[in-house]
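Ticket #4471: structure output looks truncated?

Reporter: J.K.
Steps to reproduce: submitted the chain below (414 residues) through the standard prediction queue, then opened the result file.
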Amino acid sequence: MFHLKNTLNKPTSSETARALSLLVICVLTLSGCSSADDELRVYPLSYQQMDPEAMEAIFEQRSGVRMRLAKPISGVSALDALARGEVDLTLVENSTPFESGVRAVLPTYKSVLHLLARDGFSLQQGQQSLKGASIYVANDSKAGKTFIELAAQRQHVAADDLHLVSEFVPGETDLIVYFGPITPSNHAWYYPGYRLLSLNDSLAASNRDHLEGIRHLVPQMRVTVIPSRTYDLPGNEGPIASLEVDTLLVTRKAVPEAVIYELTKTLIQQKPRFTAIAPALFSGLTENFDPMDLNFPLHRGARRFLNRDEPSFLERYAETINMLVYLAFLLLTSLVGISRWRAQRKKDRIDTFYTRVLAIRERADGEDSDFLLAELDALEKEAFESLIAEKLAADESFRIFTELLSRARAELKP
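Returned output as attached by the reporter:
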């Protein structure tokens, strides 16, 4: 969106100004809640008319943090200022090429191409072309420049032959390219002596498939129509074939996650209030969009809010985790059971050795002691071989066995 007040002396409508003020105030207020920053810089909408003192008062009341509207830098677009770290928030069309360090927050509204031509200037086939024409792309719009480049290719006009001007000059500028919302009550971008053009009757007169071709070359752009009599302006007596693209609220990657989370939350939850004021500006606010359709990755704060209802890792895999825990419990129980079973078997084995030693002691009165001692030696050897083979455990039971064996030997020796 852009403002030609300085050059056109045309005020905006109070309704649109109020609506846009509300959007900017909301963004400023919520973003200022970062504990790390006490001042947030926002690139202002070019034709936004607002009361800075009123905005400052609302901002201070709601957040306690100071805000500062960044001044537009001559020759520097809003996106460039954002990428350079000179501002923290701005609005760009979704057809804008990716810029490192820039992250999307939400789609806000649909920007529609408004193409205006100076009276006496025509783009119909066989008449004037874009070559040498004075073209003003409002707000240095990336979508506007992309459209002009594609139109120039259609007319076989080289890029060096395009004459893009940075300022609008009434009566001298041949074309105005403006991407913005359809707002019938506000057309500050219009100036007497110009008329709206339909793409079907101008750049694509020889091929009505040209609009579809643009859509395929720039997937973010969609064919749309401005209904007849939407604007009480020359050229809108009938429907106007045009293009539209989503406008994104974007921020820097370095802006704290908590700030963007709260910003996204309020924009979504307060959408009915915003839409009641200005449907054209706020109707595009939605959380039901595919992030893969955006030219910029989502900021982590926006992503966290949008995924707030998604199940957590534990919730997603609860059944699998329960099954694994159950299997682990069964495995542990089985291991404990096997361990106890093996221990009991070893205990049973050592008990047989106890019995055999006691049996040898009972035979001491009627048999030769040397023969009984030899049996004890053989029993000891057998016990230690079982210990080595892990058929017996080197525990308290085995120690008792060795003591019993020693006492039996002592009793049998003469």
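Triage note (M.O.): checked the attachment and the full token line is present. The chain is about 45% helix and 15% strand.
Status: closed, working as intended.
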